[in-house]
Amino acid sequence: MARRLPLSKLHISNRLQWARNHTSYGDKWMALLFSDERKWNLDGPDGNIKYWHALRKEPRSFFSRQNGGGSVMVWAAFSFNGQVGLAFLDG
User: Fold this and answer.
1) Exposed e or buried b for every residue in 43-77, given b needs 16+ CB within 10 A?
2) What is the pTM of this model?
3) What pLDDT digit, counting tens, does each position of 60-91 carry?
């Protein structure tokens, strides 16, 4: 799980104000869709060629495919009516 910085007092205040401003939305919430996506590279992170190793052992060589190992992207969403199915996109 990725680590995130804690919310500042300003962030908390802004989020609370946004929520208070939108409490009167009523049925409009039924029309909203929240979505997010995530990409995983099969050969490791984009552009990251470093790794940790024990200093008392020889460094190991890691090889990757010439054109990369591909990736998988997952998209998901939810709304007032529940979850929208996951979508998997091969890259």
Assistant:
1) eeeeeeeeeeeeeeeeeeeeeeeeeeeeeeeeeee
2) 0.50
3) 766 656 666 678 889 999 998 898 888 887 65
